[in-house]
Amino acid sequence: MAEEQEWSNFKSEVAQRMGRDGAEYTEALHDVWRIMYRLQEPET
């Protein structure tokens, strides 16, 4: 499935496709990405 993707930046692609009407959806995705990024960081 990853090999089938045709975009280079998922966040930009979502913003472009959703436009202003999808601002809340785009922000929700950013929240998920932030949380997942924090979970990937090694604990110190």
Outline the structure in words.
Helices cover 61% and strands 0% of the residues. It is mainly alpha-helical and 44 residues long. It has one domain.
- Contiguous low-pLDDT stretches (5 residues minimum) are none
How far apart the termini lie comes to 34 Å
Largest beta-sheet details: none
Count of strand segments: 0
Order of helices and strands: HH
Output mean pLDDT.
83
The total of helices stands at 2
Hey, roughly how much beta strand do the residues contain?
under 5%
Helicity level: 55-70%
Shape: flat
Outline the fold blueprint:
Elements: H1 10-18, H2 23-40
Provide a brief overview of the structure.
The protein is mainly α and 44 residues long. The chain has two helices and no strands. It has helices at residues 10-18, 23-40.
